[in-house]
Amino acid sequence: MSPARTATRRRRALVAGACAAVGVLLSGCTGGVSAPSGSKNEINYALPANFTPNWIVPIGTPGHLNTNNSSISQAMWEPLIAYDGSAGEIGWNKDNSLATDAEFAADNKSVTITLGDRHWSDGEPVTSRDVEFWYNLVRANKKAWASYSPGKAPDVWTSFKTLDDRHFTLEFDRAYNRQWMLADELSMIRVMPQHAWDKTSDSGPVSDLDRTAAGAKKVWTYLIDAGKKISHYASDPLWKTVSGPYRLKSFSTSGRVELIENEKYDGGGAAHVKQINLLSFTTVAAEENALRAGTVDYGYIRASDLGIKKSFTDLGYHVERWSGWAVTYMPYNFNNPEMGPVFKQLYARQAIQKSVDQKTLSEVLYNGTAVPTYGPVPQGQPSAFLSEEQKAEPYPFSNSEARKLLTDHGWTEQDGTMVCTSPGEGAGHCGEGVEEGTEFRMRVLAQSGSTETDNMMSALQSSFEETGIDFEIKTAPVNSVLSQTGQCEPDDPACKWQLSFFGSAGSWYFPAYPSGDALFASGGGSNFGNYSNPEVDRLIDRTTTSSSSDAMLAYSKALAEDLPVIWLPEPDYQVSVIRNGLGGFAQDSLANFHPAMWAWTK
């Protein structure tokens, strides 16, 4: 989602002007479009269709996992440790980090961080107290933090010790894998201006409220409530104290965002272009029309449109694939009162997975710009984390084998749909909790605005029908999909959802170390469908504590075989269309965008 770390972890850009500027061709845009570009002081960047930015607070909360939110806020409030692929390889981007060093203890049970000599835009220094402010708020409100997974940050940190204004030590509850701690946990820390934000009302005094749990809860509530007022973002004094290369100029509820250079920035990653306009569109077609009209400098086309690439290069653009460090999937809701008992049967999940022809979808539907996903580790790029079992596709496509799995377990086809006719446990029966007469009917709420997603859902519907599985498709904007398909209990009215899809550009973009603690550990912050397997929990725990390469391989194998979700082809993040002369950057495989790096080279 980024979604999710989405939620929590990723996505894209801005815009200006009016749809009327280029006539009815742009009637699908929502954020407005600038006049044809020509100014070297601005860049018009197209956000993914229907990925409307809706959050500014540098603390993610459920329902605000659109990864564009994270990229926008990081341009204004730099992370403690920016771990990204902005230079072409995934690593620590020190130019856009507030920390300059992280020294682990020999026993891997603590780390001492050094801050750079940096200042907020109001002139106040960035200090250890600003990091402690974030730490205190997250510890006191962790269950409301979208990135929280029990047993992970902030639970892994037992104390925060200030050494001086630019040095502090975080102590851990045990020894951890350094790579995981740095890339996955410490990279989540967002340094926030304690001297400006540690209060409970607009007119209230700033004090050390965060240092008590009760005070931290009140400050959290104040900041989160302010974050819900999108139309006030540009005028609210809260959001004017920044540390990053950009500050906010405007933020529209329709999705248009304008960032302007922070003249007070004193870090190593200063902006090259004064203003960035992030443009929002309801459909890819509307965005492509904006490219043709010359009102977008950095946009994208559908994979299916690669055949007309020349029509864009003739207009002064070049086309580049943007591959991602991600996996794509549809989560099951294992707590859904209707289908949850069916989803909990491994044979049923195997039958569903065998009904997905990933190779054909990747080659035909995505025009070769996607790769199959057979498990929890990204497969689009070589890595030491990928097991041979996952690479080998444990459940190859076969409708006939999928049907046999169901009929061997007590299902009989009636009027084209499989029905449980042998309830109960044991061989030849439907399994625990599956009642007699249960029909194999699944509903998905899928992201709208993507032709590839629409076509894939239709293809899946046809294939599932061959197996005897009914598949109903409903669509909604991605923010709505994310907000309607969260964790729930079976008796919760919000637990009606069965399947969810929000991955037209990839469902989950990992940090550098692709541990599944947030996604697949019991109670994980982005474990939307409440998947739970004690053995998998043990394997995930080992990936975070052991330095052995075998830990990730065992995890990769286990989840390729246990199918916590429906694995689907992983598409390129996007097929980018970039105006000639715009450069100075690499396309980050973690799906962040980094506007400070963009520059007009000619």
Strand-helix topology:
Blueprint: E1 42-46, H1 67-76, E2 83-84, E3 91-92, E4 99-104, E5 110-115, H2 128-140, E6 157-164, E7 167-172, H3 178-185, H4 194-197, H5 213-227, E8 246-251, E9 257-261, E10 275-279, H6 284-293, E11 298-301, H7 309-313, E12 317-322, E13 326-331, H8 340-343, H9 346-354, H10 358-365, E14 370-371, H11 388-391, H12 399-407, E15 411-414, E16 417-420, E17 441-447, H13 451-467, E18 470-476, H14 478-484, E19 499-501, E20 508-509, H15 517-520, H16 534-545, H17 550-562, E21 565-568, E22 570-571, E23 574-579, E24 582-583, E25 599-600
Parallel strand pairs: 1-10, 17-18, 17-19
Antiparallel strand pairs: 2-3, 4-5, 5-7, 6-7, 8-9, 9-10, 11-23, 12-23, 13-20, 13-21, 14-22, 15-16, 24-25
GO molecular function, one term: peptide transmembrane transporter activity
Protein name: Peptide ABC transporter substrate-binding protein
Pfam families: SBP_bac_5
Describe what this molecule looks like in 3D.
The chain is of the alpha+beta class and about 600 residues long. It folds into 3 domains: about 55-240, Dipeptide-binding Protein, Domain 1 (Dipeptide-binding Protein, domain 1, Alpha-Beta Complex); about 245-320 and about 575-600, Periplasmic binding protein-like II (D-Maltodextrin-Binding Protein, domain 2, 3-Layer(aba) Sandwich), CATH 3.40.190; about 325-570, Dipeptide-binding Protein, domain 3 (Roll), CATH 3.10.105. The protein is about 25% helix and about 20% strand. The protein has 17 helices and 25 strands. The strands form 9 sheets. Strands 1-10-9-8 form a 4-stranded mixed β-sheet, with helices on one face. The protein has a 4-stranded antiparallel β-sheet with strand order 4-5-7-6, with helices on one face. Helix 16 runs antiparallel to helix 17. The longest helix is centred in the last third of the chain and has 17 residues, at about 450-465. The chain is globular. Mean pLDDT is about 90; it is low at about 1-35.
